[in-house]
Amino acid sequence: MSLRLLLVGPPGAGKGTQAKTIAEKFGIANISTGAIFRSHISRGTELGKQAAAYIEGGNLVPDELTDALVRARLSEADAQNGFLLDGYPRNLHQVDALDGILQDLQLPLSVVAELDIPDEDIVGRLLRRAEIEKRADDTEEVIRHRIAVYHSETKPVTAAYAERGLLLRVDGTGTIEQVAQNLQLALAPFAEK
């Protein structure tokens, strides 16, 4: 069995950085919803045109369209040997939709890895990043709001996977290398099943 995992964590937890490392380590497709949207938009697919209309208007892409984009991406050949899905599902509707997609594709989920990091550490990381990258929009107030939204939106999702025995909390504190090592050690048994 190959590794099929969801990677979740708050903004600033380093999901994007860790996703690249984990996908390379385990030889699986690294799939983010943002990349899916950009790919379909750049290729001018019908789904891409629909997504672009929402994004350009400053709106969130509706669940049904996001579900269709994820289904299309998970149907591609490279995802059949395993995948890391980042940025989806974000709510309980998407959990149900993903269940249906994975059942249809006969790709059972191996594990849901949540990067566990204290809120104050996240605030510190994002404030340092804002200072280094000169990101004026990343104020402490905005960062704390993003963290609160993450907790309120993600708690039902992680609770649903915890009830199924699929949730694995991984220490997200420390250096990039330390977190990568924590993730690799925690995920290795699931890749061997």
Structure characterization notes:
With 193 residues, this protein is α/β, with parallel strands linked by helices. The chain is 60% helix and 12% strand. The protein has eight helices and five strands, in the order βαβαααβαβααβα. It has a five-stranded parallel sheet, with helices on both faces. The radius of gyration is 17 Å and the shape is globular. The N and C termini lie close together (6 Å).
Global outline: globular
What's the β-strand tally? Answer: 5
The average pLDDT value, as a whole number, equals 90
Q: Sheet with the most strands?
A: 5 strands, parallel
Order of helices and strands: EHEHHHEHEHHEH
Number of helices: 8
Radius of gyration: 17 Å
Cα end-to-end separation: 6 Å
User: Uncertain regions: pLDDT < 50 for 5+ in a row?
Assistant: none
| Fraction in helix | 55-70%
Main sheet: strand order? 2-3-1-4-5
Beta-strand residue percentage: 5-15%
What structural class should be given to the helix and strand makeup? alpha/beta
Task: Offer a concise description of the structure.
The chain is built from eight helices and five strands. It has helices at 15-26, 33-43, 46-56, 63-74, 92-105, 119-132, 140-163, 176-192; strands at 4-8, 29-32, 83-86, 111-116, 167-171.
